[in-house]
Amino acid sequence: MSGRAGTGDRGRRGEPGWGEPRQAEPGQAEAGRAEAGRWPELEAALAVVNRDVRATLTLPGREPLILMAVPDPDGFDGDQVYVAMADGRSHGNPVHSDDPEEGAEPEPVDAAAVLTVVAEAAQETLMELLWQVWPLCREHGTGMHPRPAGTSEDWCPGETAAAGPPVWWCRGGRAGDCHDASLIGELADTLPGKERRALRRKGRR
Fold first, then answer.
1. Within 10 A of 110 (CB to CB), how many other CB atoms are there?
2. Residue 198: band (very low, low, confident or very high) from pLDDT cuts 50, 70, 90
3. 92 vs 12, 42, 64, 72, 126, CA distance in Å?
4. DSSP string, 162-185
5. Spatial CB neighbours of 150, under 8 Å, sequence gap ≥ 6
6. pLDDT tens, 34-79?
7. At 25, is the secondary structure helix, strand, or coil?
């Protein structure tokens, strides 16, 4: 991704500004919710990730994560897009920092890679702003990470050998029983039957 390290951080825990919505520089356009339809690949990926959020986490106000567009402080890259809470707070680097009106495409461009990047950004925002691990493996009680399906414990990002769809991967317990817990977007399928049925009833309302 083309985001700069630390672009999304507004202070650390206990410091002024931590977890606040990003503010535009003087003279810049204000940050705001990304215009619908402007970044369709990112919107599609976030809709998938929000299925997992809805299935496993109660957010303040119960509103899903959103895309926030923030003007580039240097004025070169157009809007930078972040995965944010419904109130505009986010944490971490942008998922997209190019202006599609200039003919740029999301980085990376394939749907699986975009989904992985958006899932990572959602995870960082949720964990940092809610101060809790997400998502958790129901079998091992440990945090999971986005990976291509079928990767081994010693897999490193960027390896081309792993070409499976994006999953939530768990490193397992002390026995080293790492495993793919779920496709990203399908965490509801890992819930006990009673919770799955309650979730489906909620979705029909």
1. 10
2. low
3. 11, 16, 18, 15, 11
4. --SPEEEEE--STT---EEEEETT
5. 162, 164, 180
6. 999 999 999 999 999 999 999 998 887 779 999 999 887 766 667 8
7. coil
Residue by residue, DSSP assigns 102-158 as: GT---SS-SHHHHHHHHHHHHHHHHHHHHTS--SBPTTT--B-EEEETT--TT--TT
Distances, alpha carbon 141 to alpha carbons 85, 136, 166, in Å: 24, 6, 20
Evaluate whether 90 touches 7 at the Cβ level (below 8 Å): no
Nearest to 115 by CA among 144, 95, 138: 95
How far apart, in whole angstroms, are the C-alpha atoms of residue 205 and residue 197? 13
